[in-house]
TrEMBL record:
Belongs to the membrane-bound acyltransferase family. GO terms for biological process: lipid modification; phosphatidylinositol biosynthetic process. One of its GO terms (cellular component) is mitochondria-associated endoplasmic reticulum membrane contact site. It is a multi-pass membrane protein. Coiled coil: none annotated. This is Leukocyte receptor cluster member 4. The keyword Oxidoreductase does not apply. It comes from Pongo abelii. It catalyses: (5Z,8Z,11Z,14Z)-eicosatetraenoyl-CoA + 1-hexadecanoyl-sn-glycero-3-phosphocholine = 1-hexadecanoyl-2-(5Z,8Z,11Z,14Z-eicosatetraenoyl)-sn-glycero-3-phosphocholine + CoA; a 1-acyl-sn-glycero-3-phospho-(1D-myo-inositol) + (5Z,8Z,11Z,14Z)-eicosatetraenoyl-CoA = a 1-acyl-2-(5Z,8Z,11Z,14Z-eicosatetraenoyl)-sn-glycero-3-phospho-(1D-myo-inositol) + CoA; 1-octadecanoyl-sn-glycero-3-phospho-(1D-myo-inositol) + (5Z,8Z,11Z,14Z)-eicosatetraenoyl-CoA = 1-octadecanoyl-2-(5Z,8Z,11Z,14Z-eicosatetraenoyl)-sn-glycero-3-phospho-(1D-myo-inositol) + CoA; a 1-acyl-sn-glycero-3-phospho-(1D-myo-inositol) + an acyl-CoA = a 1,2-diacyl-sn-glycero-3-phospho-(1D-myo-inositol) + CoA. GO terms for molecular function: lysophospholipid acyltransferase activity.
């Protein structure tokens, strides 16, 4: 495994025990503690490239404040335009972001577009309420209010799934912050039930990548082999690729 893969795995594993520390905490500690951990992990893995995520967040928040009735389409255009710019940095002669920055940026794009959609739904519901003489409509799933800048930052940098997922909406994030009786929600047993295949997948990854290393396909000797042999070699290579991602996804789900 490369140093980047080891760092990625350590970040995912650290996220699991931290969740038990936050589980019974109050909404304030949950919000700002989880954001501090996520921002710390982002700074540690991305360094100065963390600025890309900050610019994306600030731009989306400005659009939400300026045009709440149409912020979903605007946020979609803004975040994907910035993602295009982000991917073209090397072509523009600018410093190339780390792979960790790419992971953070992808998940952040999902979260901010979703947040803008939720704010737009809230704004449309409020307009319908005013048009109907302030008669209350169904509010299930709606946000209680438009998030402030600090609330948007705390949601964006929440450590849960910050590099891998799972993705969760801002409404789900609020439900976690304001969760009543968190001690009654089972955690350890579901975690162990979900985590048990990870060591097996990890062992299969190490074994297959050792027997069929990816570096071999970059050597000239590889292309001297017959075509059937080269095609067969792709099977264990992609198998190792899948096992690596399975371990990462399981660890991310356990952290969530």
């Amino acid at each position: 495994m490369s140093p980047e893969e080891w760092t990625y795995l350590v970040v995912l594993l650290i996220s699991i025990p931290i969740g038990f520390l936050f589980k019974k905490a109050g909404p304030g500690l949950k919000r700002w503690g989880a954001a501090a951990v996520g921002l710390g992990l982002t700074l540690f893995t991305c360094g100065p490239h963390t600025l890309h995520s900050l610019v994306t967040i600030l731009g989306t928040w400005a659009l939400i404040q300026a045009q709440p009735c149409s912020c979903h389409a605007l946020a979609l255009a803004w975040t994907f335009s910035y993602l295009l710019f982000f991917r073209a940095l090397s072509l523009l002669g600018l410093p190339t972001p780390t792979p960790f920055t790419n992971a953070v940026q992808l998940l952040l794009t999902l979260k901010l577009v979703s947040l803008a959609s939720e704010v737009q739904d809230l704004h449309l519901a409020q307009r319908k309420e005013m048009a109907s003489g302030f008669s209350k409509g169904p509010t299930l799933g709606l946000l209680p209010d438009v998030p402030s800048l600090m609330e948007t930052l705390s949601y964006s940098y929440c450590y849960v799934g910050i590099m891998t997922g799972p993705f969760f909406r801002y409404r789900t994030y609020l439900d976690w912050l304001e969760q009543p009786f968190p001690g009654a929600v089972p955690s350890l047993r579901p975690l162990l039930r979900r985590a048990w295949p990870a060591p097996l997948f990890g062992l299969l990854f190490l074994l297959s990548s050792h027997l069929f290393p990816l570096e071999a396909v970059r050597e000239d000797a590889f292309y001297a082999r017959p075509l059937p042999a080269r095609l067969f070699y792709m099977i264990p290579v992609f198998f190792a690729f899948r096992m690596r991602f399975y371990v990462a996804w399981i660890a991310a789900e356990c952290g969530c």
